[in-house]
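Bumping my old thread because nobody answered last time. Still need a sequence for this structure:
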């Protein structure tokens, strides 16, 4: 048995037609499809009905006595309603149908209407389009509210946020989003920032480290310590956290940058306090221990009595040399580059004498740092890197160099040991990174194919006083 079409069930439709036979036929077609139908013999009657109840659609003839269907459509739209309106017209009035469509009618039907399917489908389609428009409007409103909420959070966060996409070669494209904190901290306008890449905001000595972080595994945030360059040319220490998101054949990167000046200030005070303790210990070793050993040496020297006295003298001299050497390591003083060269050579010579590790040291440029104890921090990096080699790498050779690479100062410590996986300890790496941050440098530890390479790069002026 044929099942009746009820696609208009629960729908309320108004039919406006001044010809009773046509009005009745249209009403029967719609009711058989499940619709509730309110007939109107004129546009004036239709407007009264429209004000008194809600409808899902209006079907109206264009040619009506009195107000015509076009005027009815204008009145409905003037009330702010976007209810679906379908106009019926004869062949002679096609131009009127076109005018109705331009005014916002959803569809038109040619009279005489003898096929129930055509009017039911037109009505159902018009209502569906109306529902889609309503849903889109709701979703658009929700999306707009979400965007406003996101923008408020985006701009009110205390960290700088920058977003961009990666090019196919892995390099960053221009910035496409910058929050208010980034604009105010860096001093660039939003328009100016959108003409730049994230690399343009970094000191040259830190760009390679940033590229390595951007090339890291997907979905794994990469964190780096770096130097941002403000519009005024000042350099600001910062922590960068790079989050990569793959979407639609593109890789989007969200960079959260945190001003690290306060942290660097704390680390600087901590490092300086540590150096003060080292200095105090060094002075005590030199002034007390060495003095006592020197006294033993002098007392034993005038009248030696057999082998025992010779042993006393030898032991005292050896202890005095060891204490003097130890005090130099605890209390290095750097007035100029020669002091730095002497301290590094002494350090490497001690490693050779005590552990049999050969060395080479080349200093092709004068290391220049800013900030208090800058040269001392660079020396401590060399000291920590070589100590790690001695303790962990089982190396026979250490090579230390200080040179310029495209205007960037580069300190390199390499060995031929067992490599990073069994090389520098976690604490040693933390100490070197801490000191690198204090002088505004980038630090990397890598496998050189025949051992480990520690590389520290900075520019004079990278360090920002905090």
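Sorry it took so long. Here it is:
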């Amino acid at each position: 048995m044929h099942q009746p079409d009820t696609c208009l069930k629960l729908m309320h439709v108004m039919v406006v037609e001044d010809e009773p036979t046509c009005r009745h036929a249209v009403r029967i077609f719609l009711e058989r499809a499940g619709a509730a139908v309110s007939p109107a013999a004129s546009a004036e009657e239709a407007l009264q009905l429209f004000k008194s109840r809600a409808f899902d659609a209006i079907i109206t003839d264009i040619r009506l006595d009195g107000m015509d269907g076009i005027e009815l459509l204008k009145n409905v739209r003037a009330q702010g309603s976007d209810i679906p309106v379908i106009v019926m017209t004869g062949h002679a009035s096609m131009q009127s149908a076109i005018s109705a469509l331009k005014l916002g009618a959803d569809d038109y039907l040619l009279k005489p209407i003898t096929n129930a399917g055509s009017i039911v489908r037109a009505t159902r389609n018009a209502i569906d389009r109306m529902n889609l428009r309503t849903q889109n409007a709701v979703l658009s409103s929700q999306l707009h509210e979400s965007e406003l909420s996101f923008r408020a959070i985006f701009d009110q966060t205390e960290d700088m946020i920058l977003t961009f996409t990666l090019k196919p070669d892995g390099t960053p494209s221009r910035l496409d989003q910058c929050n208010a904190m980034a604009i105010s901290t860096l001093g660039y306008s939003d328009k100016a920032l959108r003409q730049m890449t994230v690399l343009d905001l970094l000191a040259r000595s830190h760009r390679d480290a940033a590229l390595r972080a951007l090339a890291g595994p997907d979905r794994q945030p990469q964190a780096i310590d770096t130097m941002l360059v403000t519009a005024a040319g000042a350099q600001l220490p910062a922590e960068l956290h790079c989050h990569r998101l793959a979407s639609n054949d593109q890789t989007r990167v969200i960079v959260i940058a945190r001003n690290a000046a306060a942290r660097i200030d704390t680390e600087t005070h901590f490092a300086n306090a540590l150096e003060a303790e080292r200095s105090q210990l060094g002075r005590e070793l030199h002034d007390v221990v060495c003095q006592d050993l020197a006294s033993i040496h002098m007392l034993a020297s005038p009248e030696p009595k057999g082998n025992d006295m010779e042993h006393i003298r030898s032991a005292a001299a050896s202890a005095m040399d060891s204490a003097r050497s130890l005090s130099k390591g605890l209390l290095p003083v750097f007035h100029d580059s020669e002091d730095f060269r002497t301290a590094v050579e002494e350090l490497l010579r001690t490693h050779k004498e005590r552990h049999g590790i050969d060395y080479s040291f080349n200093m092709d440029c004068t290391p220049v740092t800013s900030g208090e104890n800058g040269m001392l921090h660079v020396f401590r990096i060399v000291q920590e890197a070589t100590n790690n080699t001695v303790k962990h790498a089982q190396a026979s050779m250490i090579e230390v160099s200080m040179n310029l690479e495209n205007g960037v100062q580069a300190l390199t410590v390499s060995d031929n040991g067992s490599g990073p996986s069994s090389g520098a300890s976690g604490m040693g790496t933390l100490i070197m990174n801490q000191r690198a941050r204090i002088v505004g440098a980038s630090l990397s530890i890598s496998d050189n194919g025949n051992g480990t390479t520690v590389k520290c790069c900075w520019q004079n002026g990278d360090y920002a006083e905090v």
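The two ends are 88 Å apart (CA to CA). Let me know if any region looks off to you.
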